[in-house]
Amino acid sequence: MEKQYSPTNVEQKIYEEWEKNGYFKANAASEKPSYSIVIPPPNVTGILHMGHALNNTIQDILTRYKRMDGFEALWIPGTDHAGIATQNVVEKKLASQGESRHKIGREKFVEKVWEWKEQYHATITKQLRKLGSSCDWSRERFTMDEGLSKAVRKVFVKLYEDGLIYKGKYIVNWCPRCRTALADDEVEHQDDSGNLWYFKYPFADKSGFVVVATTRPETMLGDVAVAVNPKDERYKNLVGKKLVLPIMNREIFLINDDYVKKEFGTGAVKITPAHDPNDFQMGLRHNLQPIVVMDESGKMSGDIPCEYAGLDRFEARKKIVDKFEELGLLEKIEKHEHAVGHCYRCATVIEPYYSDQWFVKMKPLAEKSLEVALKNEIKFYPVRWKKTYVDWMENIRDWCISRQIWWGHRIPVWYCRDCGEIIVSEIDALDCPKCKSKNLNQENDVLDTWFSSWLWPFTTMGWDGGSDTDDLKKFFPTDVLATAPEILFFWVARMVMASLYFTKKIPFSDVILHGTVRDKTGRKMSKSLGNVIDPLEIIATHGADSLRFSMIMNTAAGTDIFIGKDSFDIGRNFANKLWNASRFLISNIENRINFDSLPHKSELKVEDNWIISRLNKTIENVRKALDQYRFNEASHTLYDFIWKDFCDWYIETKKSDFYNPKTLKDKENALNCASFTLSATLKLLHPFMPFVTEEIWRNLREKVFNSEINGESIMLASFPKVDNSRIFDETDDNFAFLQEIITGLRTIRSENNVPPEKKVSVVIIPADENTEKILLPLDYLIKLFVKVDNLTISQNAQKPSFSGQNVIGKTEIYVVLEGLVDIEAEKEKIVKEIARLENAAKGFENRLNNEEFTKKAPPKVIEGEKAKYANVLETLEKLKANLGRF
Questions:
Q1: Cα separations (Å) of 553 from 164, 372, 633, 634?
Q2: Which of 353, 352, 349 is nearest to 194 (CA)?
Q3: Could you give the CA distance from residue 446 to residue 449 in angstroms, rounded to a whole number?
Q4: Phi first, then psi: what are they for 145, rounded to 5°?
């Protein structure tokens, strides 16, 4: 083995070998139990980010674990066409070249987007491979490939024929920048410090006026009424009267509606059905005709005064407010906090807009989807997301599925220009079935990106509405979906609805919702903040295993992850620790050796039985954690076992058996036990760190054969199972006590500045006869770890006169210091340190007794100061005890 582990030298080579040998491919004809995952398809808009790295690491851990555990494991990769997002980036590229989509036309523009897709699709799949993702690339899909495109049309036609898709003029969320409609869950609301303007609307009979409060003065040009609550006594005798709409000089009525809140503003609100969703509903109730006063780009238009025509909506707002002030109809302006909707793609302020759109009726689809969650047929991890899912299903609204863009699945609807017939078809319509005219126009709009994504779990396996494919029979429904909570509604809930409607099955049984990757200060990563960490950059400097393990180790279930570039050192250091321990072990094996089985417990030393017992408990805990999706817990369990138990303790205990064994059997047993433990450990760790475990595995297989080394590649090896006959609780407890004794003795050496190379005399006075019986056979380990030349373990031993001491349980431990330290020099050092710490303690005491400090300082700061103060007092106590001994 190389002296140092170099990820850059092995990772790409290993991945290419895995892929070439077909280790990622799943066989639908296999008799093994199936396990399947479909990847949340990344958008073809650029490169992967840390959120993708976390998400795909989780999926790969599960896939590798199940594959090794005897399942026919399938992980389907793919990418999403991402309609609005992809069109936006391509349009920006065209703009930089002095072009636009309108200049080059629809067909040419779509060609340009396909070119973009090919380029960035290749980048994304390369990154997934760099990460170590064991996807079945032979089954890769794209949301606009031929098979999925056919499925999308079939689904649209089926829903239309079932009365679940309809077209109508409705108020929708409109992005003036992207010039398209957005579904409700594609709108991100942000708190905004705006204004509330109070306008006077005069009565037509000149008997006075009504004051209305509004946050959007520019829409008043489209007002068709003023509404008040029927229970509002202030307006009881005024309802039904005519008002004159200022600027427009149009007569409108004062009406009643229960929706109006008496406490908002003056209790009187203007009604603009074409530009407000709530006003739209009121307009339907009162048969009020909407008046559109803005165009698709957010500019004022329609039958309005010339001075406002063509103005941007926010410019028009200012001019209209100025006009009201000029007319003496502006009563006042108040500051007002409210939530404002923004486009989830470009952050433009959303405009409610009245237009023709296509919708899916969601309530009929939601009923069964709600039921499977309530019955726990689909489980959420963490479980708190179940309530969010249920709330959304219970309050679901129809889904606007049409988008006024060019990139995406064009809606399969054709209009006959001669007779007006509407043709909805899975195949391109060539003539009108009613009048036989060939004069047809296809619908210009495309479907919402999520309309293809909601079919992903079953269309990726070849669903076409006919008989099931082999993949569908074997691998559908899938087992688990791992994704981010922000697309719980966009994607997860809709996949459940689509799957139940079209396949009569749930798409997956478990949903893992992991947190968001943030920087160390808690901010989301974004280019504008300059805090983005590129996964490829970390892979280049630390290796994919370090990236994967560090991410998982830092991520508690369902919580956000806070990282910086130094966060990945833990994974790199861990890989190096494992490499060094493995290299040491393998280098001590001179010729290839075969071990049919582990020796019986009675033939092994205490440390051997202890490490095998600890291994089996680790196997049990890792399996349990993985089965419950507690990846962070599994990684910590492995880290502690490998770093502390195996490397720091066990390997150290075996050095004498490797170098100077008392018998050949001692060396043979040591190598057997150590190689068995290492091979099982590599398999446990493989799903988390696939590359370094494979590289060590190959080196180990060249030297050793045992019952745990059962695969040419570690990917083909069996995941370890618990052997309850090799769990020894009493041995574990005894060894844990020994570790406490050794740690205590080492602490005494350190606190008293005993030089590391000096051997010491140790006296241990056990608490009772049983403790003495436990420790006596382990004296050789105490001598090894503490560097002892004279060890006494006896209940009858006398306490040494000049020594450092500690108590473990009720067992007294002593390190004889006479002749090892310069007493006067040590006393002087301790006296100086006591003086320094006493001054520090006074400082903390004064600060914590200062009322001004405790009132102004945050609780976290105060707690920190208290902890420091307690630490200083504890250290003082120890120093004074040491001084007393001197």
A1: 46, 32, 8, 9
A2: 349
A3: 9
A4: -75, 175
Say if CB 595 and CB 704 are below 8 A apart: yes
Q: Residue 520's CB: how many other CB atoms inside 10 A?
A: 12
Q: Number of C-alpha atoms within 13 angstroms, CB side, residue 497?
A: 29
Distance from C-alpha of 542 to C-alpha of 7, rounded to nearest angstrom:
7
In the prediction, which pLDDT does 508 show? 98
CA-nearest of 452, 401, 362 to 180 is: 401
Q: Hey, is 817 helix, strand or coil?
A: coil
Are 121 and 142 a contacting pair, CB within 8 Å?
yes
Q: Are strands 250-256 and 330-343 parallel, antiparallel or unpaired?
A: unpaired
Closest to 615 (Cα-Cα) out of 640, 596, 588, 597: 640
Specify the amino acid at residue 328.
G
Question: What CA–CA distance (Å, rounded) separates 742 from 755?
Answer: 17
- What is the Cα Rg of the chain in Å? 36
CA distances to 237, 527, 539, 559, 720 from 534, rounded to whole Å, are 66, 11, 9, 21, 34
The Cβ of residue 190 has, within 10 Å, a number of other Cβ atoms equal to 10
Residue type, 176: P
382 vs 313: CA distance, rounded Å: 43
Gap between the Cα atoms of 679 and 697, Å rounded: 7
Q: Cα-Cα-Cα-Cα dihedral of 648, 653, 657, 659, to 10°?
A: 50
Q: Which tokens is 806 given?
A: 């500690």
Long-range contacts of 628-632, Cβ-Cβ distance < 8 Å, separation of 24 or more: 628/381, 629/381, 629/480, 629/510, 629/512, 629/557, 630/557, 631/58, 631/61, 631/552, 631/555, 631/557, 632/552, 632/553, 632/554, 632/555, 632/556, 632/557
Task: Kindly give, in sequence order, each residue whose CB lies less than 8 Å from that of residue 639, ignoring residues fewer than 6 positions away.
Answer: 553, 574
Nearest to 241 by CA among 203, 212, 272, 200: 203
Report the pLDDT value the prediction gives residue 718, as an integer from 0 to 100. Answer: 94
**C-alpha torsion sign, points 514, 520, 524, 525:** negative
- Inter-residue contact 290 to 283 (CB < 8 Å): yes
Looking at residue 886, its pLDDT comes to 67
Q: How far apart are the first and last CA of the chain?
A: 50
CA distance 318 to 810: 81
- Cβ-contact 114, 480 below 8 angstroms: no
Distance CA 239, CA 842 (A): 75
Q: What one-letter code names the amino acid at 69? A: D
* CA torsion through residues 257, 260, 261, 267, sign: negative
Residue-by-residue DSSP string for 705-732: E-TT---SSGGGSPPP---GGG--HHHH
Only one residue has tokens 């090919």, namely: 118
Helix (H) or strand (E) holding 12: helix 7-20
Residues 376 and 192 sit within 8 Å (Cβ to Cβ): no
User: What residues of the chain score a pLDDT lower than 50?
Assistant: none
Residue pair 166/320 in contact by the 8 Å Cβ criterion: no
Q: Which stretches of 66-182 are assigned E, i.e. beta strand?
A: 72-76, 78-79, 141-142, 165-175, 180-182
Under a CB-based contact definition with an 8 Å cutoff, are residues 677 and 604 in contact?
no
Please name which of 682, 681, 673, 676 lies closest in space to residue 653, comparing C-alpha atoms.
673
Instruction: Identify which of 401, 436, 431 has the alpha carbon closest to the alpha carbon of residue 414.
Output: 431
CA-based nearest residue to 83, from 402, 486, 497: 402
User: Which residue intervals of 162-243 are DSSP H helices?
Assistant: none
Residue 91: its pLDDT value, please?
87
Q: Say what the pLDDT of residue 177 is.
A: 87
Report in angstroms the alpha-carbon separations of 283 from 182, 244, 535, 752, 756. Answer: 22, 18, 52, 85, 86
